[in-house]
Amino acid sequence: MQEADLQTDPTPVNVAEPQPAERAEPSAATMISFENVSKIYEPDVAALRHVTFMIEKGEFVFVVGPSGSGKSTIVRLLLKELEPTGGKIVVGGRDLGRLRRSKVSRLRRNIGCVFQDFKLLPNRTTAENVAYALKVQGEGRNAIRRKVPEVLNMVGLAAKMDSLPDELSGGEQQRVSIARAFVNHPPLLVCDEPTGNLDPDTSVGIMQLLYRINRAGTTVLMATHDREMVDKMRRRVLALEDGALARDERRGGYASE
Amino acid sequence: MTARLKLLISEAWRSTTASLSTTIAATLTVLAALFVLGCALALGTWLRSYGDSVKQQLLVKVYFCTDITCPQHGYASAKEINRVRVKLESNPQVKSVTFVTRDEAFKQMKKKYPEYTGGVVGNPLPDAEDVQPVKGEYTAQIANSITSSNLPGIQKVNYGKQTTKKILHYANVFNVLFAIALVILLVASILLVINTIRLSIFARRREIEVMKLVGASNWFVRLPFMIEGLIFGFVGSLSAVVLLLLGKAFALPALDFTKAPGAHAIAFELNALILIGFGLLIGAIGSSFTLRRFLKV
Prior knowledge:
The structure holds 2 protein chains of 2 kinds. Chain A is α/β, with parallel strands linked by helices. In chain A, 30% of the residues lie in helices and 25% in strands. Chain A is built from 8 helices and 10 strands. In chain A, the strands form 2 sheets. A 6-stranded mixed beta sheet of chain A has the order 6-7-8-3-9-10, with helices on both faces. By secondary structure, chain B is α+β, with helices and mostly antiparallel strands. Chain B has a 4-stranded antiparallel beta sheet with strand order 2-3-1-4. In chain B, 69% of the residues lie in helices and 8% in strands. In chain B, α2 runs antiparallel to α7, α7 (161-203) packs parallel to α10 (268-295) and α9 (218-251) runs antiparallel to α10. The two termini of chain B are 28 Å apart. Chain B contains 10 helices and 4 strands; from the N terminus they run ααβαβααβαβαααα. The longest helix of chain B has 43 residues, at 161-203. Chain B has 2 domains: 2-54 and 167-295, no CATH class; 59-158, Alpha-Beta Plaits (2-Layer Sandwich), CATH 3.30.70. At the A-B interface, α3 and α4 of A face α1 and α8 of B.
């Protein structure tokens, strides 16, 4: 991927996109595989019902649906914040059900995550927040000095390195959290309503950023109910309704057509 | 390795200063709890050793016959006295036996109570053995074993039955009370400190959640908190020791009951060491213990 390519506008182009397979076996090219996954919150709230899908490496996938349809549950299952009640989840070749608790931190270092509420550490500057993701995996001082400005440059916040989160706007905070998620260059980026707290113009900027990250080879899964965004991007859409997978379209819109 | 250590310490320092008010609260809690604990330790050990010294004074006295007290028998012979001595020394409950001749006894009495002995003609006192038991509790058994042996030449065996009983009783009650008080104090101070730590960690639970989400291992989150715990445990206990030291220097000389002979409180250095060790332990373990449930993210 050339540098020039990353700077282009995120209008959909004809990049060779993997087909969302209907009924395929997981292969080396599979990033995420959900197999008949259910999640029931105690005592009897079914958040996911027998959900099955597969996401290939390099895809950009929206997970859409109304509040309470199970979008966030998918994100939390991917991070092994929750355990599924039934079914099998494989991320990057790792069966999460067999992953020991002590290895969860290693899994998360390979999954960048971006949240609606940014989840920045409040008493650390922009640069320190990004550096934290490197420090937790024992990255050396030199590497941190090199990588942090690089990624902050990419998200356009090089000038705000020393600002604290509450000195930044919502859009800027979300850029910091994207920078933190991407600084390790993880193979997978998971976003839970990343534009949920932002105004439409700011949201477009965030989406452009995510699009660029995807173009650089990172698989992106984004849970959202931003109708306009989904319709404009025309990417693969997984639609959830009441915990069940209602639709899986390769270039879908927010609502079924 | 050193880079890792530096990172750890800088993270700990950051979390200590970032939540200064809770750190101060935790430090003061440790200070208060350990100060009370230190006072209790000093007072308790002093009272115990006072009790022991009183017990040390418990003696069995064996009085031998004189011509007045045993008119049929007359003075106990050297042979009889020796047999009693052998009997006493073979008893494992006996620590030492001191023979007090009637002349010595009379001399001592004259010195102690000149007003009573002034008009006394001759020496009415008997020879005696002062028997010191290994433990104060043995006095009754030793006295009984001599009485029941019916050795000739003994006029009377005396061990201050009532006084001994009382002293032993109070000493036992006190030992139990001291143990209970110490346990209660320990538990109370542990709970107090853990509760303060819990508040401090609870205030930062969101931060911990974020750390875990970006891939920090449990130890990476836990160690800075533990070091922070060590810091306030150390500072708190050290301040408690300083306060106790001031108390020892200024308040203690004013209380003259502490000058009783033979009684000693726990050595101050040992007391200080116990408090600091306890402060460190409670800080580190309290922190990691409280953290457990917040790490399950």
